[in-house]
C-alpha cells in the first residue's frame, strides 16, 4: 500500500491567530480581568488601570506597542520599585560620631 499523493490533498487556509488579551490580573489586589489598558496612539500614551483597587500606570507607546507590552512594563516597574524600596530600608544607619568607644569586659584594677 502506498501513500496518498500530495497533489490530491487540498491546501489548508491560513492559520488563525488568537487575539491577544486586553484585560489582565491585577498585581496588587489579584482580581482576574480587572486591569484594562487604553491606548491613545495619536498622543503616544497608554494608560493602565485596575477597576477594583484603582492602581494606575502610564507609559509611552509607538505603532508596534500592544496592551500586553504595557502590562509587562507595569510588572517590571512594580518589581523595580519593590527592589528599590527593600534596598533603601536595609541600609545601615550612619552614626553621628566617627570614633567608636572601646568596650572593656573587666577591670584590671584590684
Secondary structure: elements and pairs:
Blueprint: E1 23-24, E2 35-40, E3 45-50, E4 56-60, H1 67-89
Antiparallel strand pairs: 1-2, 2-3, 3-4
Low-pLDDT parts are none
- CATH architecture annotation name of the domain at 23-85: Single Sheet
**Approximately how much beta-strand content do the residues carry?**
15-25%
Mean pLDDT: 83
Instruction: Work out the oligomeric state of the chains in this entry.
Output: single chain
Helix proportion = 10-25%
From the spread of the alpha carbons, the general shape counts as elongated
CA distance, first residue to last residue:
111 Å
With strands numbered from the N-terminus, the spatial order across the biggest sheet is 1-2-3-4
Secondary structure: number of strands: 4
Question: Which CATH first-tier class of the domain at 23-85 would you pick?
Answer: Mainly Beta
Helix and strand composition category: alpha+beta
Q: What do we call the CATH topology of the domain at 23-85? A: N-terminal domain of TfIIb
Report the order of strands and helices: EEEEH
Q: The biggest beta sheet, please?
A: 4 strands, antiparallel
The total count of helices amounts to 1
Radius of gyration: 30 Å
Amino acid at each position: 500500500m502506498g501513500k496518498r499523493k500530495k497533489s490530491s490533498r487540498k491546501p489548508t487556509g491560513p492559520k488563525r491567530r488568537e487575539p491577544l488579551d486586553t484585560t489582565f490580573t491585577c498585581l496588587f489586589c489579584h482580581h482576574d480581568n480587572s486591569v484594562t489598558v487604553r491606548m491613545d496612539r495619536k498622543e503616544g500614551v497608554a494608560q493602565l488601570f485596575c477597576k477594583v483597587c484603582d492602581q494606575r500606570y502610564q507609559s509611552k507607546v509607538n505603532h508596534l506597542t500592544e496592551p500586553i507590552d504595557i502590562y509587562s512594563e507595569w510588572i517590571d516597574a512594580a518589581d523595580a520599585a519593590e527592589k528599590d524600596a527593600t534596598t533603601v530600608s536595609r541600609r545601615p544607619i550612619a552614626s553621628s560620631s566617627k570614633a567608636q568607644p572601646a568596650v572593656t569586659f573587666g577591670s584590671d584594677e584590684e
